[in-house]
Amino acid sequence: MVDYLNHLARMYLLSQMGTANANPYYQAAWAFYPNLAMDLVVPPMARLIGAENATRLFLLFGQLLIIGGALALEWVVKRRVHLAGFAALLFLYCLPFTWGFVNFECALGIALWGIAAYLFAAEQPTPVRFAVNTAFVVVLFAAHFFSLGIYGATLGFYELWRAFDRKLPYRDAALRLVTLAIPAVALLVVMRLTAGSVGSEGTFWYFDYKLLWPFFIMNGYSMAVSGASALVLMAALYVAARCGMLKLQPAGIWVATGFALLYLAIPPRLFGTAFADIRVLPAAALILPAFCSLSLPSRRWTMAALAIVGGITLANLAVVLVVWLSYRGDYSAFIRSFQKIDRGSKILIGTSGEGDDPPFKDLTQYPMYYAPTLAVHYANAFVPNVFAEAGKQPVQARTEVRRLAIPYGGPVPIRLLSAIAAGQMTASDDAAFIRTWYRDYNYLYLLGTGVANPLPDMLKELDRSERFVLYKIRRTP
């Protein structure tokens, strides 16, 4: 997964801090950040079973929370398990999850359980509802802020429906909503008072891809499989609704309308977090089945429905399995290549894209994006791409190397490195963090297939695999 290895690198750093093997370039920076799910859970486990095993278990735990939470929510709403489990399997490898947004995945699973618990206690006295809500708000605030938003939005939509359906006085409806919001507001105040933050600056909105994401959301590696899956699923839902077999409860209509407006309103980048809007889609897909009823008239219809759900689920699983298995050799080669790096070195990640072409034209190539970040563990190295953003992660680079941080987080195009080496960058160019890369770094990992040495006078090849080349940098430009 794209982000998974970068998260794994951070787990190595956190689990080794304070020990003789601690990386010299990074330090802990704990604060009241609402994005700490794996940072709180994995390092203590890693000291017992190793960081890699602990991170794998965290991913599995997140998947189990997603499936179990969807089932629990449906049982609370309908007192039966019917559709939600199938929906969870359909979206278990959707785009945000296969890109490696593991904190979001885990926290979204917790949010599903929280929504189920609140609805179970919806008719209980105010102190009971407040206690249940407060417990889940605290957990979700620490785990992932966006998932807390999904939790709050869902319950807000539900409370609005409840007030409308029962014609509650405005005072009573407002009181329930205020009671719902108090814990989150209190935690935001505490966060501000303790110098915490929600991500970094950088929020912008554009509409370009909002009509396309519903078709590309179902599979993180193949747009063709995702698009075909989405079209088949949409067609099946349309036929079922048109024939009166699929119905949405009144509360579900309010929740669905709210999610649609939320999806349109949320910017693609929110508080420095990319792809914020597409995270609404799997949340809606996991929550709405609890408010749906499906009545199939015959065994033939039942078998057709199972065939559609099973076919999409197996197709997604097959794509994920093929991609993940195809990287085993490359990851092994990466780990072997770290042995050729002097411990304590500084490592730059570059890509081999030429001109304006993207270095990775196929999503199946993205799992290599952050693989070199594992050098922080295997070679005690500094890699500027490690996730260490204030407001998100409790790790930061030490002062002496902080200036090398890459603003956009990803690898640097080799054409830019070549231009700097050739003296073609001017003082006005916005690339200060790599302006003297040939002096600041000891090694360069160049990602891509069929890569030839772009700077033979400056780079000495040390290792090569199908998807990367490791170079030692000669420091004279």
Structure commentary:
With 477 residues, this protein is an alpha+beta fold. It is 52% helix and 8% strand. The protein has 18 helices and 11 strands. The chain has a 5-stranded mixed β-sheet with strand order 8-6-9-11-10. The chain has a two-stranded antiparallel ribbon with strand order 1-7. A hairpin with a 3-residue loop joins β10 (459-464) and β11 (468-473). α6 (102-120) packs antiparallel against α7, α7 (126-143) packs antiparallel against α8 (145-165) and α11 (223-242) runs antiparallel to α14 (299-326). The two termini are 35 Å apart.
Give the key terms.
five-stranded mixed β-sheet; 18 helices; globular; two-stranded antiparallel sheet; 477 residues
Main sheet specs? 5 strands, mixed
Q: Total strand count, please?
A: 11
Strand residue percentage: 5-15%
Main-sheet strand order equals: 8-6-9-11-10
- State the helicity in percent bands: 40-55%
Radius of gyration: 24 Å
- Give helix and strand order, one letter per element, not per position: HEHHHHHHHHHHEHEEHEHHEHEEHHEEE
What is the first-to-last residue Cα distance? Answer: 35 Å
Low-confidence stretches are 355-360
Q: Average pLDDT value? A: 90
Number of helices: 18
Shape: globular
Instruction: Please state the structural category.
Output: alpha+beta
